[in-house]
Specification:
The protein has helices at about 1-15, 40-45, 55-65, 80-90, 110-120, 125-130, 135-145, 180-195, 200-205, 210-220, 225-240, 250-255, 265-270, 295-300, 325-335, and strands spanning about 30, 70-75, 100-105, 170, 310-315, 320. It is mostly helical and about 350 residues long.
Length: about 350
């Protein structure tokens, strides 16, 4: 008799605790992120006062074993029972504001972009990186866009579209979240951004690919427009005199390491298509090492004339330009003394 009474009491309590919180139908926004499940969102639902009890919500899940949770944005309300909430979150037709925002800041390389895409969509980083180096796909792009040429198919290049994916904020509807459509939108934007410079590209002694390569170095070496124009001037001086560019940012890219990590001696001295610290390597890297902004592209098209051949940035990103090795070493010594050296 006591067992039956306890069961009746439990069922009554269960029915009460899984019923609607109130009759209020005001919409409450709930975002379900990738990697979440019905159990991990319990706290959020309780904080938003959409359920009465996390415990009884989880008991409901145990008893009913609902289907997959659909990632996205929803509008729920307090008049919905636990059963209605779970049903809503399992049906993609209930999604609201389904567009997602992907932001790629200036200077990111394609590996970093791949990680952002993987974090926000069902596309993996490896799928993205394989796509942007797929020969058949690249051939279709060469036929479609004036700024993409056979130069991107050089076997030494890590990722064919590195440097060609314009850094910006993009909005994608759910039906656009495929590799082809994501890349179509980004490349269309790249074309739009490069179009104003088309005549300058075509009249330059360097190819578009070479100019984007140089712009990617400038992007990572300086921050302000004026510094970028002078950094470009220094690089041109070195190129014109058959010097190695000696840019550390290329060494990091060659080693596939973030610039927050230390490079080994072998990585510093490694000679490949990217590492301009290798003294036997003259000229530009084989391809871009990041996706540059218009500021850096403009800098390489309109560099500042300078008699300097060296530059170094301090910990506050101020750039110092010098004419020779002695002046360069003196600046480095001073920065070390002031605690501003980041080399």
């Amino acid at each position: 008799m006591l067992i039956i009474l306890a069961l009746v009491l439990f069922l009554g309590l269960y029915k009460f605790q899984t019923a609607a919180v109130s009759k209020n139908t005001d919409p409450i926004a709930v975002e379900i992120s990738k990697g979440a499940n019905y159990y991990t969102i319990a706290e959020t639902l309780k904080e938003k006062k959409l359920i009465k009890s996390e415990l009884f919500y989880k008991i409901f899940l145990k008893l009913h074993n609902p289907g997959s949770l659909v990632v996205g944005n929803y509008e729920l309300n307090q008049s919905m029972s636990v059963a209605e909430i779970v049903e809503t979150l399992s049906n993609k037709n209930n999604l609201k504001n389904t567009a997602i925002r992907l932001t790629f800041r200036e200077g990111l390389n394609v590996r970093q972009m791949a990680d952002i895409i993987a974090e926000n969509t069902d596309i993996t980083a490896s799928e993205f990186l394989n796509k942007i180096s797929d020969e058949a796909y690249i051939d279709t792009l060469i036929a479609k866009y004036w700024f993409i040429t056979d130069e991107v198919k050089n076997q030494e290049i890590y990722y064919d579209l590195e440097g060609y994916l314009y850094p910006d904020t993009y909005m994608f509807e759910q039906e656009e979240l495929t590799l082809d459509k994501i890349l179509d939108k980004i490349l269309a934007n790249t074309e739009k951004k490069l179009e104003p410079f088309k005549n300058e590209f075509e009249s330059n002694d360097y190819s578009v690919h070479q100019l984007l390569t140089l712009a990617s170095l400038v992007e990572l070496e300086a921050v302000t427009d004026s510094d970028r124009a002078e950094v470009a001037g220094v690089f041109y001086n070195r190129l014109n005199n058959n010097w190695s560019l000696g840019s550390d940012v290329t060494t990091y890219y060659a080693a596939k390491k973030p610039m927050t990590e230390s490079l080994t001696k072998s990585e510093l001295n490694s000679c490949n298509g990217y590492n301009t610290r290798c003294t036997s390597m003259k000229g530009l890297p084989v391809g871009p090492i990041a996706n540059p902004s218009n500021s850096s592209i403009k800098a390489v098209l309109e560099p500042k004339e300078t008699d300097c051949y060296y530059f170094v940035a301090d910990s506050e990103k101020k750039v110092y330009f010098t004419r020779n090795a002695n002046e360069h070493e003196a600046i480095i010594a001073q920065l070390k003394k002031e605690g501003k050296w980041i080399g």
